[in-house]
Amino acid sequence: MIVVEGTDGSGKSTQLYLLKRWLEIGGYRLHFTEWNSSPLVKSATRRGKQRRLLTPTTFSLLHAADFADRCERQIMPLLQGDYLVLADRYVYTAFARDAARGCPPRWLRNLYRFAPVPDITFYFRAPLDVAVHRILSGRPKLKYYEAGMDLGLSYDRSESFRLFQARILEEYDKMVDSDNFVVLDGTLPVNKLQKQMRDIVASKIDLKRFAPHAPEWSKDA
Amino acid sequence: MPEHERDKEKEKAATPASTSPGDPAASAAAAPLSVPGATKVVAPTEEDTAQHFFGEPLVGFDPSEITGSLIVIEGMDGSGRSTQITLLQEWLESEGFAVQTSGLRRSNLVGRDIDQLLAKNAVTRLTLSLMYATDFFDQVEHRILPALRAGTVVLADRFVFTLIARGVVRGINRDYIGGLYAMALRPHLTFWLNVRPETAFAREFKKAQAISYWEAGRDMSLSHDLYWSFIRYQTMIKREFEVMAKRHNFIELDGEASVSAVNKQLRQRIGERLGIRATKYTPSSALAHLWR
Q1: Cβ of A110 and B16 within 8 Å?
Q2: A189 domain-assigned
Q3: DSSP 3-state assignment of B156?
Q4: What are the DSSP calls for A139-186, one per residue?
Q5: pTM greater than 0.90
Q6: B259-286 confidence digits (pLDDT tens)
Q7: Taking a C-beta distance cutoff of 8 angstroms, is the pair B197, B257 a contact?
Q8: Is residue B136 part of a domain?
Q9: What does R_g of chain B's alpha carbons equal in angstroms?
Q10: pLDDT for A123-163, tens place per residue?
C-alpha cells in the first residue's frame, strides 16, 4: 500500500497519478483510491456541506464512515488479493485536518484504528506560501469547508484558507517521525520528484509480486 | 507487508482511548482541547469533562451553559420505550417543563441515509456503526445540546448504549466503539426497561404482524428461523446491557409490569431530579388508550 499525503497544492495528486501511470503501463495489478469518494456517504456529505450542518465531530465521523466503506469493501480485500493499493490521501489527512478543527487527537487515532498501516507514506512538503498560491491562483472561489470557514478564523475566505492550511501543515509535521513519512520536497520539478518516488517504490516494494501472471501459452513459446 | 506484521503495526499505531463508555474505570483524563479561533469557547476542565462526558470533551463545549436534564430510556423494541416517552412528555409539559425528544436515525444530516442503507442491506458493520455515530453526534450538537442550554428536559429514546451493544455483538472491538462515544454526553438519568426477549417478540409481532430484519439480527446468520434469530440476537444484546447497567448506573425497571406501574416509577425518579414533589398523573383522553 502506497499513500500520498500533504496539504492542498503540495503536488501530491499529480505525483500519484504519474506513479499510477508508470505502474499501469508496467502491467501491475493495482487499485487507486481517493479520500472521500465512497458513493455511500456522498449525499450526506453534500447535504451537510450545502446546509452547513457539519461540525468538527460530524465532519470527522462522516469521513470515517466513508473510509470504513472503502476499507472494508475495497482496500482490505484487494490487499489480501495481492494488489498494489495507491491512496490519494489516507487517515493522516483526517489526523491533520480534524485535529486542526479541534478534535481530540486521541479520539481521532482511535476512530481510524481499523485502517491498515501503509508500506510507504509519501509526504509532499511545500512551503505554505507556495501551496496556498497554487490553490488560490487556480480556483475562482474556495468552498466554505475547504477554506475552513467553519472555524471562524477570518471572514475573508483566502485568509481563512491560509490560516487553516498553516494549522494542517503543523499537524502533518508532527507525524513525520511517529508515522514514518517519507518527506519529499514539493517545490522540485515534477519529473525529478517522480524519479525519486519511483526509485523509492522500486527499492521498498517487491514489485514482482504484483506483476501479471505469465499466460499459459507464453511458456510453450 | 505480511498480514501478521501488518496487524502488529496496527496495534502499535492504535492509541486506545483510556476512557470510554465501555470502560469500567472511566476516569477523567481529558485530552487538551485545542480551541477553534474567533468564537467564544471555554475549555472544559477535567472535572467538567468527567461530569458531562464519558471520556473526551466535545469540541467547542461550554459546560456552564447546561441547565436542562438529559434523561435516557433504553430497552429493546417491545419494551415500551416510546409509550413511556409519550406519557412522560405529557406529564412534564403539564408540570410546566419544556421537553425535547431524540432517538436513533432522527438527525437531519444522515437519518434518511441510514434508513436507505438498512433498506438496501448494502452496508458493512463498521460503516453502519460510523453512520449511526454521525447521526448520534449530529443530534447531540444540533438538537440535544441546544435544548439542554435552554433548560429543556431531553427525553432520549435510546442512546449510545444500544449503539455500543449492537456493535459489540457484531464483533466490533469494545474499546474501539467505546472510544468512539467518549465524547458523548453523560445522561443525568438512564432507565433500562428490561423485558424478556420472548415478551418483546410477542408485543412486536402483535403490533406489526411482522418482525424487522435488523431487530431480529438477521444479518448475523444466527438462525433461519425468525423467532429463534430474534431471541438469540436480543439475548446477546441483553447480556451487553447487563454489563453496562452496573458500570453506568442504569435504573433498571421491569418492562413487563403494567404501563401505569412503570410510568409511576419513572415519574418518581424524574420528579426527584427535577424537584417535582407531587408526581400524580393520569393521561389525558388523547393518551388514555396507552394506559394499561
Answers
A1: yes
A2: yes
A3: strand
A4: -SS--TTTTTGGGTS-SSHHHHHHHHHHHHHHHHHHHHHHTTEEEEET
A5: no
A6: 999 999 999 999 999 999 888 999 999 9
A7: no
A8: yes
A9: 20
A10: 999 999 999 998 988 877 889 999 999 999 999 999 999 99
Residues of B in contact with A1 (CB under 8 A): 1
Residue A56 lies in a domain: yes
CA distances from B51 to A124, B30, B159 (A): 42, 12, 17
Continuous H helices in B209-258? 226-247
Q: Which of B8, B27, B33, B34 to mutate to test the interface with A (most CBs of A within 10 A)?
A: B34
CB contact under 8 A, A102 and B15: no
CB contact under 8 Å between B180 and A40, yes or no, is no
Q: Domain tally for chain A?
A: 1
Q: Of chain A residues 164-193, which have a CB less than 8 A from chain B?
A: 179
CATH code: domain of residue A30? 3.40.50.300
Contacts of A99 in chain B (CB under 8 A): 34
Instruction: Give A-chain residues touching B175 at CB under 8 angstroms.
Output: 110
CATH of the domain at B217: 3.40.50.300
Q: What is the pLDDT of residue B124?
A: 86
Total domain count, chain B: 1
Q: pLDDT, tens digit, for every residue of A85-116?
A: 999 999 999 999 999 999 999 999 999 999 99
For B7-62, write each residue's pLDDT tens digit. Answer: 444 444 444 444 456 543 333 333 333 333 333 445 667 777 778 888 888 887 88
Residues of chain B with pLDDT under 50: 1-19, 23-41
Reading the block at residue B12, the C-alpha cell is 502499535
Contacts of B60 in chain A (CB under 8 A): 55-56, 102
Whether B192 contacts B241, CB under 8 Å: yes
A180: nearest CA in chain B?
A: B13
